[in-house]
Amino acid sequence: MNISPSLRRDFLTYALGYGLAIVLTGISFAFVFYRLLVPQAVFGVVLFLAVIQIVVHMRCFLHISLKQSARSDLQLILFSTLIIILMVGGTLIVVLDQNARMM
Amino acid sequence: MAGVTEPELRHAGLNLSDDPREVREHVESDVFGFWVFLMSDAVMFACLFAVYATVRHATAGGPTAADEFKFHSAIWETGLLLTSSFTYGMVSISMKHTRGRLWIAAFIVVTFCVGAGFLKMEAHDFVTMFHDGATPERSGYFSCFFVLVGMHGFHVFSGLVWMILMGIQLAVFGPDERTKVNLIRLGLFWHFLDVIWVVIFSVVYLQGLIR
């Protein structure tokens, strides 16, 4: 079976994504399991690692790259991200503030 | 003109060829349409996450997240879903580098089995939680938990059904153009579910287990 350079590169992209995802997930779980920091700091680390892992998945598994910026896919994804940030951020600010006022 | 159109004939996701000129125009628009669906799905999940975050402490005196979540099953489920994402990557690679339908089919079967393993573990978790009295009607918290995680599980189930259908399509028609476009879309769907799971294990399981 012949292995072309292109095939090797594609395989390495997936292998790299898989490896990075396992390491990031492992660190996340380790921080919670061994209680390496105070609870709030641990949650901060977990969220930070989750964002990095999402970027890894997007890059290595979904093959989204900034080089294809001429494409409308990227604009669609960035716009959806904006909508999500607005909706989730807005909901949390409004409802948590209401909660605090009701106490 | 060629310089302008070339980069546009690529789509997000693993292209069938490294050379953009070989990616057919309709493949590109089909895949773009699927991205629109995925992003609308992402917005729906984002709303469920937002609602979940606002009812984090609304357990109404019943079981809490820390009582019900098990560390080892969260790790295993994460590992299984991540592995299935990787094996589906092998489906995409076999397809792009024309390894023939046997390789494609073999990796689809592996992905199906690992994905089914994930679903089985999740179902087992849910049954255990039901026995502990952590049912959707127990508290606002568990209503939101089961809607959010159950919705992801339902998506995984749909992905598994889709894999069976793709197996049939592959067996009947072989890896022709139409089958390939469908396999690309299934790949995007499957990898997307793994991205959602990253947020679920971080925001739902790990946050629930932090103490």
Tally of extended strands of chain B? 0
Number of helices of chain B: 7
Task: State the shape of chain A.
Answer: flat
> CA-to-CA gap between the ends of chain B?
60 Å
- The count of domains of chain A is 2
Describe what this molecule looks like in 3D.
- The complex is a heterodimer of chains A (103) and B (211).
- Chain A is an all-alpha fold.
- Chain A is 81% helix and 0% strand.
- In chain A, helix 1 runs antiparallel to helix 2 (39-61).
- The radius of gyration of chain A is 19 Å and the shape is flat.
- The mean pLDDT of chain A is 89.
- Chain B has 211 residues and is mainly alpha-helical.
- Helices cover 77% and strands 0% of the residues of chain B.
- Chain B has 7 helices and no strands.
- Chain B has helices at residues 2-5, 25-54, 65-68, 71-96, 101-131, 140-173, 177-209.
- The chains are: A mainly alpha (103), B mainly alpha (211).
Short structural description:
By secondary structure, chain A is mainly alpha-helical. Chain A has helices at residues 5-33, 39-61, 72-102.
Annotate the secondary structure layout.
The complex is a heterodimer of chains A (about 100) and B (about 210).
Chain A: H1 5-33, H2 39-61, H3 72-102
Helix pairs in contact in A: 1-2
Chain B: H1 2-5, H2 25-54, H3 65-68, H4 71-96, H5 101-131, H6 140-173, H7 177-209
